[in-house]
Every structure is written in structure tokens, then in C-alpha cells.
Amino acid sequence: MVARTSSSAVSAFGAAVKAKLSNAAISGAPEDQLRGPLETLISELAEIGGLVAGALQLVGETSLRHLQVRPDFAVSVNNALVGFIEVKAPGKGFDPRKFSDPHDKAQWAKFKSLPNLLYTDGNGFSLWRNGKQEGKSVTFEGDIETSGSKLQAPDALGALLSDFLNWAPQPPPNAKSLAEVSARLCRLLRDEVVEQWRRASSRC
Q: What are the CA-CA distances from residue 144 to residues 38, 56, 124 (Å)?
């Protein structure tokens, strides 16, 4: 059996996404074509990084994509929620501060409340915690739409993913910080409830 490496995992990811995006039969949004290959990539890189097989789970929110307050994936390690992944269409970018689309900007305003969030458009990743970038973005070498198996990623990708998957909640150091964190999360919950209510009302 050939040993898996980060390079082979990224190469397979590039090949899988290119095949999906170039398939004449696709009818879903471009970002939807990233989802399956992305799950495989994250799982393989996690295991290459030392995580036990099966410990990582990516739970898709496909039925809730109409909600601006739900990222595409919730990520758990050993049945404990560690963070979220938001997937954008190839070429849209993975720095939410630079989005120009009103939907994406409004969504980012809500996602700032999340303590551990990865953004990707297939061409790279960035990690965000409570609205602030953690470390530097990691950009692939090549283009997810055209490179296929030639897609490559720098070594920094493994470190970024490890940082994301090993996140642990940090207790607020004082009452003021606790109140700020609670307020952000309550706003996120409120916005989701409001969106659900509006959708339910529109069907009546």
C-alpha cells in the first residue's frame, strides 16, 4: 500500500474537483462541487497529521444553506465540536474581509461570532477566531478549476489545519469578557431563529 502524503492528498483533491467542475452534467452551484472532495482532503490530512482514523467528522449543513448563519460544515473530533468550515465558489477567495457580494458580507458579519472557522474556495484556506485572522492564509500552488492533479499546497497547510482541529475553548478571563462572548453568540442564535421564523411565515 502506498503511503499517503499531504502532496498526494492535495493532488487527489485537485483532480476530483476539476473532474466535477468540468462535468457537463453538473447542475448545482460551483461551491457544491468542492464539498465531497473537501471532506476527503480534510480527513486525509488530519490522519496524516496524526489523528486516529474515524475521529474526525464533518457534518454538512446542506439543508440549511439558505440560512446566512450556518457555515457549510460543523467539524467534530472525538465527538466534540471544534469548529466550522465555510466553502465559497472557486475564485471567490477565502478572505471574508474582501468579499463584495452583499450576501457574503452580511454572512461574514454573523460569522465573526464564531470562535474557530475555516474559509476556503478550493484555492486555499484562512483561519478565523471571533472575527480575527489566526496566522496567515495558505494559498495552493495552481488553480482548483484547471490544475487537476498538479495542484500543490505549501507545508503550512498541515500546520494551519492542525491549529484548527486542536482548538480548545478558552474560558473568558473576567466577567466583562464573558458578557461579550455571550452577547455575540446570543446574536447569532437570535438571527438564526429570526430567519427560520421568516421562512416559516412565508410558507403560510
A: 12, 24, 9
Q: Is 33 exposed, middle or buried (0-12, 13-18, 19+ CB in 10 A)?
A: buried
In whole angstroms, give the CA distance from residue 84 to residue 118.
6
- The domain ranges of the chain are 6-170
The string of DSSP letters for 41-83 reads HHHHHHHHTTPPTT-EEEEE-GGGTT-TT--SEEEEETTEEEE
Residue 180 pLDDT > 80, yes or no? no
- Return the H-helix or E-strand segment holding 156: helix 156-165
Place of cell 457549510: 72
Written out in words, the top-level CATH class of the domain with range 6-170 is alpha beta
pLDDT in tens, 77-87: 999 999 999 99
Supply the pTM of this predicted model.
0.82
DSSP letter for 143, please. -
- For the beta carbon of residue 66, count every other beta carbon within 10 angstroms: 9
Task: Identify the weakest region by mean pLDDT among 30-34, 62-66, 130-134, 157-161.
Answer: 62-66
Q: Under a CB-based contact definition with an 8 Å cutoff, are residues 78 and 107 in contact? A: no
Alpha-carbon distance 123 to 92, whole Å? 9
Cα angle 15-16-20, degrees, rounded to a multiple of 5 = 115
- With a cut of 80, say whether residue 179 has pLDDT above it: no
